[in-house]
Amino acid sequence: QKHQSVMWQSVFSFRNDFLAENNVYNPKTKQLDEAKLRDATRVAMHDFTSKMGMAHSAIWSAAIHRNTDNIHIHVAIVEPQPTREWKRVTVEGRHGETYQEWQRKGYVPKKILNHFKAAFANEMVDRDRSLAR
Questions:
Q1: Is residue 66 part of a domain?
Q2: What range does the domain containing 42 cover?
Q3: HEC profile of the chain
């Protein structure tokens, strides 16, 4: 916050039957292969930070949650020393007034977002191993 860095937040949410089909979750015993979820998150985050040009400037944190019907992972990414450019934006105030202010660019291109999701999914279902077979 002190450096006005962008914080990107994402959620990976799953249908529990998908996790069961891929041997990540056992609905009867409620056992969850958290190591597999952590590994998939690491692969996706490496992909995301590399493609966004933040491989050496970003830090991230993730948490696996079971507090809803679907198991999900919250991820937050930030650059302690921001590298994102500034842009001028129009902001609406609390009372309907508008004004201009400077904010850092935090847009994630759709192509990078899709690759980020694919990297996670491919790691989850061991797609590379199944394609090799």
A1: yes
A2: 7-132
A3: CCCCCCEEEEEEECCHHHHHHCCCEECCCCEECHHHHHHHHHHHHHHHHHHCCCCCCCEEEEEEECCCCCCEEEEEEECCCCCCCEEEEEEECCCCCEEEEEEECCCCCHHHHHHHHHHHHHHHCCHHHHHHC
Question: Number of structural domains, the chain?
Answer: 1
92: pLDDT strictly greater than 90: yes
Residue 79 lies in a domain: yes
In a domain, 65, yes or no: yes
Taking residues 100-127, what's their average pLDDT?
A: 90
Closest CA to 66 of 125, 105, 120, 24: 24
Question: In this structure, is residue 1 part of a structural domain?
Answer: no
Mean residue pLDDT of the chain comes to 92
Global model pTM greater than 0.85: no
